[in-house]
Structure formats: C-alpha cells, structure tokens
Amino acid sequence: MLRAPFTRIIVWFLAVCLWSSATFAWGPHPEITRAALDVLPNLPEIKARLGEENVNALLQHCLLPDHRGRDLGRYYADDYLLIPAMPQHISHVMPQVEAAFEPYFRRALQALRTETPTNAARQIGPILHFVEDVGAPPHAKPNCPHHGELETWVRADLIRIEGYRPQLLGTNEEEALVGLRKRIEQLVAFSSERADRALAVFPDREKIEPIVLESALETTRVTADLLYTLFVLGLKEEDIPGTAALEVKIRAPALPGNNEQEPRVVLLGTPYATCAEADQPPGDGPWVGTARWRNLPPGTYRLVAYRPGALLAEKEVTLGPGNLTKIDLELSSTDPPGNLVYNPDFCLSTLGVDEPDRWMATPQRVGRVWQSAVVMLRPGKRYQLGVSVNEKEGVRVSFLLTTVPAGKPRSEGKTEQIVLWPAEGKQSPEPVEIAIAEGTGSASLTGQIITNLKPAQAVNNIWVVEQP
C-alpha cells in the first residue's frame, strides 16, 4: 500500500494536470481566427462547401488543445487531438511544439478531403491552435519568465488585418508543409524578439500591451496563410476518381446524462477516424446516427465503433473503387448500463500504441498512474462509482472528484480523492454513491489506477453511472 504523503502528491499532481491547460493560454485565439477568416478571398466558397455554421465554429475549435482530455458534450476534445501520428498530448511551447505542425496539418487536409464538414471543421482546430500558440511571445521563447502576463496582456479587440492578402504556402501538400515550416520559423523569430522587448519593460503593462499586439497581428497573418492553404488544397476536389465512400449507420443505447455523445468510428491501422452524427436529436431514447467518409482508398478494412455507455463493435468492410458501401452496426449496452467512463474495460486501442485509448499513463516511484478521460457530472444528480478488480494486491483504484462553485473560476475548484480499492475491512470493492449539490458550477470525475501491471490485467471494469 502507498504511504499517505505519496498518495497526496499524486492527487495534487493529477489535479494540476486537469486544470493546467487553462492556467496559461494565449488569450485571443478566437479573435485571431476571426480576423484571419475575414481576409480569406475564398471565404464565400468555403462557407458554401462547409456551411456557415461550421466555419463560425472554428472560433471554438481553435481552442481544442486547451481542452485536452475533456468531454465537450457531443464529442471529446481527444477525438481530434489524439491521432496515430500524434498519439500523446504535446507541449504548446517551443521547441517541443514543432512536432505538432506536420501531423496536424496533414490530418486537417485529410479531414477536408474525406469527412463531413462538421468533422473537418473540428479537425482543423488542433493545427489552428498550435500555429496560433507559437506566435505568443512566451511560447516562441523557451523558458520565458512571466508567461501568463506576456500572453494575456493584449488588446484582443484590436486584432484586425484588413487589407492583408493571404499567401498560398504551396500548390500541393508537400510544398505547403515546407512553406508552413518557413512561415512558422519567421513567426517564432518575430515573437521571440517581442518577448525580449516586453521583458525589458516588465511589469509596465501599458508598454507591454502594444508589443504583444504586434505578435498577435503577425500570428493572425500566419493563421490566414494557413487557413487559405488548407481550404485551397483540401477543397480542391469534392470527389476523387477511383476512390470509395462509406456510410456506417449506428444505433447505440441511451446514455443518461449525455445522450448527445457521438460515437467514434475508426478504420484500424489507418489514419482514418471520424465521429458519427445524429440523424435526429436523440432525446431520451437510443442514439441513432451515421458516420460518413468519401475519397477513401479502396481495400478491406477492420472497422470499430465506440461510444461511452456501449461496448465497442467491430466489422470487416471491403470498399470498391467508385462505390458507396453502407453498413449497419448495433452497439450493446455496458454492464452496468449507462457507464460514463470512456473505455472502462480497456478493450479500445486505436492509436497504434500498446495502451488503451483515453487512459494516460504517468510513471511514479511506485508503479504507474493510469488516468482516465474526464467524466462530467450534472448538479443535482447522484452517481454510483464502482470497480471490478482482477488483482487485489498491489492495485489502488480511486476517483478524483473536482467541483467548482457557481460563478468561480476553475482555478478555485476543490479536488478530493474517493478510494474504491483497497477498502479497509473489505474482501472486494463495493460501489460508492456520491451526490452533486444543486447550484454547483461544474463537477467532474477522473479515474485513477495505480499498478505495476497493464490496466486490463489489474482491473476488469470501472464505472460511473448516473442514478435515477
């Protein structure tokens, strides 16, 4: 058993991880994205192809990497952040962030060419964010002091680049990647120099704000180049000759607490993954919707579909050139029904790494801490928490419950640990019930398994179920 002080360190560390993405954030992401969109010469065509709603949604999708691990209602941020070419979360600061540009640029182009407008717009979010982030002075300059001030002391209402003509970074994907790297290199040098200038007059905010604004405006110009290039290349051909199309009709059991959650559908061993979209508002009944692809390479694929509250479904599908293939999948209920934990039995592994999807492993002095995706809870509701363990020795299972009072910032949230196993005086784990008070601003749970084993060897199933 772990000593209590070490356990408290783990609780503190994971609580910090939950909120750290919001602690330091380049303030004007939406304003930069809006100003970049406003100067695109092909904006009317983009809105016609993607829909104005999806284009406007880019102002929120550009924030996706700051919501890593979180349930955003209809989908998880990690549906679009964790991909085979980038199966783990990455730093937003130079030089580590350089590894993000190629995989997310290629993935955004792929989504524009093969997926629905809704999914394509979401998948543009990560590359937008990382390119915008690297323009923040403290992100461009490694180990920059006064990080928070140098990325938030900026007049977002002044971010406009009227008259700027976006550059096409290349006439094909490879040329565009070369052009993007050069453009980012220029932006990093530009904003690093602004960081030095701002630090020289710190803490004089009146002098610093115009300096940071220079970086925000240059970042907006680079963002306009990025978006223009993505849309020109990604929307060049609506249907590519010799490719295949696929529609997957999915029916899944109702998920009390979040029945809008969209199933994730993956062609295993490929970069192709998407979210199904509801055919109609699900209400309280079964979820019914469709995943769609076009311009896929013909061939035989192993397809898996998954949604919280349901067991994953698999099917082999063969796609012929020029053909639209339609298949149906029925997802069975979890045991217990309505389990809100993502991948609670660790059976889903789609990223090409030997780890279960949505479980983050952190090495510790004693074993590893496996941390689940965040489970959002509803104020005024009761929940049952439970676990079934395969190994009783050397395994510790708990949930971290984080609550934030209404009207308070997330930094004022309180995190407490609810231990399920080992349980004093018990031979096996027993479920625990918790209640979330009415009027709570937000509440969430994160599963935590500490073990030297793989999680599936230590734990059979872990659950959070909303009670009637």
Task: Give the topology.
Blueprint: H1 4-23, H2 29-38, H3 43-50, H4 52-61, H5 78-81, H6 98-114, H7 117-134, H8 137-140, H9 147-152, H10 173-200, H11 205-234, E1 244-252, E2 264-267, E3 273-275, E4 277-278, E5 287-296, E6 299-306, E7 313-319, E8 324-330, E9 359-363, E10 368-372, E11 375-377, E12 382-389, E13 396-405, E14 414-421, E15 432-435, E16 440-451, H12 455-458, E17 459-466
Parallel strand pairs: 1-8
Antiparallel strand pairs: 1-5, 2-3, 2-6, 4-5, 6-7, 9-10, 10-16, 11-16, 12-15, 12-17, 13-14, 13-16
Helix pairs in contact: 2-4, 2-11, 3-4, 4-7, 6-7, 6-10, 6-11, 7-11, 10-11
Q: What are the salient characteristics of this protein?
A:
alpha+beta; 468 residues; disordered N terminus; single chain; six-stranded antiparallel β-sheet; 12 helices
Q: Would you kindly provide a written description of the structure presented here, covering whatever features stand out?
A:
The protein is α+β, with helices and mostly antiparallel strands and 468 residues long. Helix content is 34%, strand content 24%. The strands form 4 sheets. Strands 9, 10, 11, 13, 14 and 16 form a 6-stranded antiparallel sheet that branches. Strands 4-5-1-8 form a 4-stranded mixed sheet, with no helix packed on it. Strands 3-2-6-7 form a 4-stranded antiparallel sheet, with no helix packed on it. Helix 4 (52-61) runs parallel beside helix 7. Residues 1-23 have low confidence and may be disordered.
